[in-house]
Amino acid sequence: TGLFTYDSGYTATASCKSAITYIDGDKGVLLYRGYPIEQLAEKSSFVEVAYMLVNGERPDAAQLKAFEAELAEEAGVDASINTLIGSFARDAHPMAILAASIAQLSAKYHDSLDLADAEQRRKAAVRLIAKVPTLSSLIYRHGKGLPANAPDTSLDYVSRFLKQTFESADGKYELNPHVVKALDLLFILHADHEQNASTSTVRLVGSTGANPYASVAAGVTALWGPAHGGANEAVLKMLEEIGSADNVESAVLKAKDKTSGFRLMGFGHRVYKNFDPRAKVIGEMTRQVLGQLGVTDPLLDVAIKLEQAALQDDYFVARKLYPNVDFYSGIIYKALQIPTEMFTVMFALGRTAGWVSHWLEQQVDPEMKIGRPRQVYTGHAVRDYT
Ligand code: CMC
Fold first, then answer.
1. CB count, 10 Å around CB of 62?
2. Which GO terms describe its biological process (predicted)?
3. ipTM
4. Least CB-packed of 11, 221, 283, 338 within 10 Å?
């Protein structure tokens, strides 16, 4: 392989040092800043988790309050964003619009941003966490042909997003505490996952000195793919196609057939060779949330059967393929009335907290270099142009 170590897909290459998130893929352990994901899911809130990811430690009550107030204060976006979103076709994919509108934020804030100033870097990170839900609401409303709506800054982070998204023309939206809690929990589970493809993309772009808005816009496009965050959308489409528990067996057969081009979406993970701890939390909450909301979804039966069938199948056992975070998340999003094409936007909303934390960490890393992998050249030797 010549002069360089060949490592396609970076399966054995650490690209940075990081103190944010720890994964033990063999044991199925996930820690944010040292705290187990199961404990955060049970006891914390997304805003507290976001603060902790960004700042390194959990906030005290006053810090949390101040952070919530800052997120509310920064939630608004310029009218130019509405013009941009309005210029997209109504059926354009929401992830395309999200990437474009985050890039547009750089047009407004980048020129005045001094990357050498710690407070300005922090502010940019907080702005992104505050504005991505607002952008997501505007994108949803555009897709549905609804008029743009402003965020209600008197509400908490998740309630603000829900109200802005679903409020009717006469200003009505009844907040359901079960919906708020479920969404908050999903955002916690999505908040960070160390050097996944989108976070690595944010860091790669950030390593060039590009501004944080540009870096996060790139992260959004990396998240879009079905092998990464786009899997939550792909899972729901797959479950709909399978349609009934009777067809589960043939779906498993097809997923094992390498010539079919079909993989079991929501299964397998580069790092976890055991249960994805996020999938355990989501699996348990799915029934509970559907019960609380009085929703019966036949797709839940299909998913449960599919999970059972795969977990007992030699092919999946031998390859240590377990359900990942995306396997059940779509069923919950659907129960929360979030349309399928918005699922990956919901993932991006939670993951923004992780992306900006990695960007911040990278900016003060004394060992940080521009990301510049090498290659193993397989082309022609030198030849004459005649
Ligand atoms: N269905 C069927 N076979 C699979 C699957 C699957 N979902 N995932 C992996 N395999 C097989 C694969 O064919 C290979 O078999 P063999 O050793 O015989 O060639 C083996 O398992 C190892 O797979 P790989 O593709 O080399 O593993 P990877 O680490 O490169 O890929 C993955 C990880 C997540 C991209 C992959 O498991 C996959 O495509 N899963 C489905 C998509 C998905 O659910 N993605 C969400 C990931 S979690 C959330 C996130 O990161 O956003």
1. 8
2. tricarboxylic acid cycle
3. 0.97
4. 11
